[in-house]
Amino acid sequence: MSRKRTALALGMAAAAALTVASATATAAPLPLAGSTTVTPAGHAFKATLSGKATLKAGSVTVTCTVSVATGTVPAAPGNNNPAGAVTSPITAPTYSSCSASLPGVTPTVTTSGAWTVSMQNGSPITATLKVPVGGLVVTTSGLANCTVTAAPSAPANVGGTWTNGAPSSLTFTNASVPVTVTGGFGCPTSATSSTFNAVYKVTDTTNPAQQITVGP
What we know:
Elements: H1 3-27, E1 36-39, E2 44-49, E3 53-57, E4 60-72, E5 80-81, E6 86-90, E7 94-100, E8 105-111, E9 115-120, E10 125-131, E11 136-142, E12 146-150, E13 156-163, E14 168-183, E15 193-204, E16 213-215
Antiparallel strand pairs: 1-5, 1-16, 2-4, 2-15, 3-4, 3-15, 4-7, 6-9, 8-11, 9-10, 10-13, 11-12, 12-14, 13-14, 14-15
């Protein structure tokens, strides 16, 4: 066999081995999620933006300095999941005092639908914000008239982290959010995703002397 044909055969064998290895790795079962308990059971909470929240789509960044959402920890025993996350319904977060990175452009953020936040105990403690279909829409007016719709065709899971404290905090760092963008000149219509950054302080509104805590 010629050197060229030998090299080709070896290359094909290596590719086949990689394919088998990849299929084997994909077929391996995922580790089970650990136990999660959110306390105090049944208590209402309020998430208040600390600093600023940014949503960047293409070359356009919208920054808001006021955002609030409220929710309730599930009553016992629903506040414990022995093999996964605990999910709490929350109000659609409100966003105001917003500005855009484009000069002469004014943004408005509207939210709607049934939102949830899920906590999974671990190291770190992870949090997932579920945005319903079309649950967040950014419209801009002025020199550029654009509409950015988050979760345009299916609910979107936005990943973050939770830190227990006084108060506890919920952080989103460069979290990816699927979007569609429509509009004319100056609108990032080719963007299909955006990045979300925000830190929320979470306080217990049923008993302000207590803290919302995530544990095993």
